[in-house]
Amino acid sequence: MELLKQRIVKDGTLREGNVIKVDSFLNHQIDIDLLNEIGKEFKARFASEKIDKILTIEASGIAIAVIAAQHFRVPVVFAKKTDSKNLDENTYESSVYSYTKDKTYTIRVSKRYLNEGENILIIDDFLANGKAAEGLIDIIDKAKCNTVGVGIVIEKGFQKGGDKIRKQGIKLESLAIVESINNGEIVFR
Ligand code: G4P
Ligand code: NA
Ligand code: NA
């Protein structure tokens, strides 16, 4: 997606450990016009699929999923990462290891909001090692739903997540794939 790549080049910054900061339009301040174009693009890329629900993970995934859902006209469910006492006790759970934070956390979705046989599209902001996406796929499997595909805004193509998901035969659509970062310059696939 050309508009997105241009924006990453213009406003993205690089941090230690190949971390791409996109706080000015995606992860902290949010550009809703850009997000709306991202939502349209996801809709176009998954136009031939039957989708009942979009599943994402808090926090950054929610805004993206919600604007995208306006183009799909389906509900959004987000997995919770915080151990909330108010959360339904009847949940599907999965463990997710974060390389960035070097810790494992539990993600949870109430059994109420995933019904057997539903067709689920996963949407998230970043795909790096793919652990968050794997956790969501695990929850979809536990709920006996179908993973229709995964839509990612920025894939870090030099990390393993994307290839692992594609190898499983899951349709993965990343709107920008960063192939490498060379001397402070982002190279797209
Ligand atoms: P993985 O899910 O692909 O295995 O990624 P990893 O554990 O390495 O990433 C942990 C968090 O960092 C995730 O957000 C992921 O979206 C984000 N992330 C990974 N690489 C980058 C990057 O280069 N730039 C930015 N901005 N984020 C990156 P999270 O912990 O779920 O946080 P949030 O959704 O609450 O913001
Ligand atoms: Na995220
Ligand atoms: Na994030």
Automatic annotation (TrEMBL):
<keyword id="KW-0808">Transferase</keyword>
<feature type="domain" description="Phosphoribosyltransferase">
    <location>
        <begin position="26"/>
        <end position="161"/>
    </location>
</feature>
<comment type="pathway">
    <text>Purine metabolism; XMP biosynthesis via salvage pathway; XMP from xanthine: step 1/1.</text>
</comment>
<feature type="binding site">
    <location>
        <begin position="128"/>
        <end position="132"/>
    </location>
    <ligand>
        <name>5-phospho-alpha-D-ribose 1-diphosphate</name>
    </ligand>
</feature>
<keyword id="KW-0660">Purine salvage</keyword>
<feature type="binding site">
    <location>
        <position position="156"/>
    </location>
    <ligand>
        <name>xanthine</name>
    </ligand>
</feature>
<comment type="similarity">
    <text>Belongs to the purine/pyrimidine phosphoribosyltransferase family. Xpt subfamily.</text>
</comment>
<keyword id="KW-0963">Cytoplasm</keyword>
<dbReference type="InterPro" id="IPR000836">
    <property type="entry name" value="PRTase_dom"/>
</dbReference>
<dbReference type="InterPro" id="IPR010079">
    <property type="entry name" value="Xanthine_PRibTrfase"/>
</dbReference>
<comment type="subunit">
    <text>Homodimer.</text>
</comment>
<keyword id="KW-0328">Glycosyltransferase</keyword>
<dbReference type="Pfam" id="PF00156">
    <property type="entry name" value="Pribosyltran"/>
</dbReference>
<feature type="binding site">
    <location>
        <position position="27"/>
    </location>
    <ligand>
        <name>xanthine</name>
    </ligand>
</feature>
<dbReference type="GO" id="GO:0000310">
    <property type="term" value="F:xanthine phosphoribosyltransferase activity"/>
</dbReference>
<protein>
    <recommendedName>
        <fullName>Xanthine phosphoribosyltransferase</fullName>
        <ecNumber>2.4.2.22</ecNumber>
    </recommendedName>
</protein>
<dbReference type="InterPro" id="IPR050118">
    <property type="entry name" value="Pur/Pyrimidine_PRTase"/>
</dbReference>
<comment type="function">
    <text>Converts the preformed base xanthine, a product of nucleic acid breakdown, to xanthosine 5'-monophosphate (XMP), so it can be reused for RNA or DNA synthesis.</text>
</comment>
